[in-house]
Amino acid sequence: GNSVTQMEGPVTLSEEAFLTIxxxxxxxxxxxLFWYVQYPGEGLQLLLKATKADDKxxxxxxEATYRKETTSFHLEKGSVQVSDSAVYFCALSLSYNTDKxxxxxxxxxxxxx
Amino acid sequence: NAGVTQTPKFRILKIGQxxxxxxxxxxxxxxxxxxxxDPGMGLKLIYYSVGAGxxxxxxxxxxxxxxxSTTEDFPLRLELxxxxxxSVYFCASRRLAGGTQETQYFGPxxxxxxx
Lengths: 113, 115
What we know:
The complex is a heterodimer of chains A (113) and B (115). Chain A has 113 residues and is mostly beta strands. Chain A is 0% helix and 50% strand. Chain A contains no helices and 12 strands. Chain B is built from no helices and 11 strands. Chain B has strands at residues 4-7, 10-13, 19-25, 31-37, 43-51, 54-57, 64-66, 76-78, 87-94, 105-106, 110-114. In chain B, the strands form 2 sheets. In chain B, strands 2, 4, 5, 6, 9, 10 and 11 form a 7-stranded mixed β-sheet that branches. In chain B, strands 1-3-8-7 form a 4-stranded antiparallel β-sheet, with no helix packed on it. The interface between A and B is medium-sized, with 25 and 27 residues.
């Protein structure tokens, strides 16, 4: 079946450290891939997306590249800030499945000054 | 635009009670979705709708019902609440064009506790 696997958290970093959150997927067909972020007490917000192989999504200093050969969409940021502390969800969407999002379990990021 | 709004923000129910979670979007989106998020887990799709009058089951529909009489509103009904329905519920919407590339916009969530 279709699924998304994320690294378990929490990920704890000091400010200005490099961030990687791993995400791999299993899908039949050609999914679109997303990273959503959930700040404390809020709903999910789209952070970035990529719709085909080798696309790179980027936003707010975060980047992720759609790697079809490794079925991965790892999230990276060169220098994290305290304000980046949140839960990050990787997700996929498949056209034949009426665009329902399939989410990973989420990775909590904690950034300390 | 207010985006996607949900009411109430928080509710405590007794076992066996029923309630309706409200969701409204003002973006004229065709697609609407209900998800639940259990602690430490990703979101699971409960029901979705591709337009007024059309709804379908998602991954975890048991114990819930929905209706879509207008484009704007997509209420979720819980009948005979059970402790297993303790969760945070998120409503989302997206527009029709663009298919899977389109962003889903989420509401702030409703936290439900069933005791």
